[in-house]
Amino acid sequence: MGGLTCVSAIKLPARAGRFKLSRDYTTTYPISFLSHHRIPFEVFLIQQLLIMALPPAEKKEPMEAQIKSVDMTEDMQQEAIALAIEATEKFRVEKDIAQYIKKEFDSRKGATWHCVVGRNFGSFVTHETKHFIYFYLGHCAILLFKTQ
């Protein structure tokens, strides 16, 4: 299956043998996981074994941050963006991305940091001077700020 990651294999009953699905007729179906991301997978039928597999991971283009509003040192901005990229590579759920960024900044820069990650939200916050950044990473907005 050349580089595919098997996610499920089901042994079919003998009568299922009348259905012929070879590699030439491999089908791709979109499925949704809890994270609401649609992920294509391929289905193979090989000797009555139904196999569902994810395609190999594609090389992603480097994400570029678009800073919308900032009150933060240049070094801290770069650290926030690098950490956000790392978080989006590790996690798919926005809540998990926000939690990762917040906890990392709490441990690196001291408490108390707040992080909001999403695609459609409004905000109005009070923050410590030089401790605020709002930027986009792809289609995802990230708001990170510190309070006392």
TrEMBL record:
Keywords assigned: Cytoplasm, Cytoskeleton, Dynein, Microtubule, Motor protein, mRNA transport, Nuclear pore complex, Nucleus, Protein transport, Translocation, Transport
Species name: Penicillium vulpinum
GO biological process: cell development; nuclear migration along microtubule; sexual sporulation resulting in formation of a cellular spore
Similarity comment text for this entry: Belongs to the dynein light chain family.
Biological role: Acts as one of several non-catalytic accessory components of the cytoplasmic dynein complex that are thought to be involved in linking dynein to cargos and to adapter proteins that regulate dynein function. Cytoplasmic dynein 1 acts as a motor for the intracellular retrograde motility of vesicles and organelles along microtubules. May play a role in changing or maintaining the spatial distribution of cytoskeletal structures. Also a component of the nuclear pore complex.
Organism taxonomic ancestry: Eukaryota, Fungi, Dikarya, Ascomycota, Pezizomycotina
Name of the protein in question: Dynein light chain
Known partners and oligomeric status: Cytoplasmic dynein consists of two catalytic heavy chains (HCs) and a number of non-catalytic subunits which present intermediate chains (ICs), light intermediate chains (LICs) and light chains (LCs).
Superkingdom to which the source organism belongs: Eukaryota
Example of a GO MF term: dynein intermediate chain binding
Gene Ontology CC: cytoplasmic dynein complex; microtubule; nuclear pore
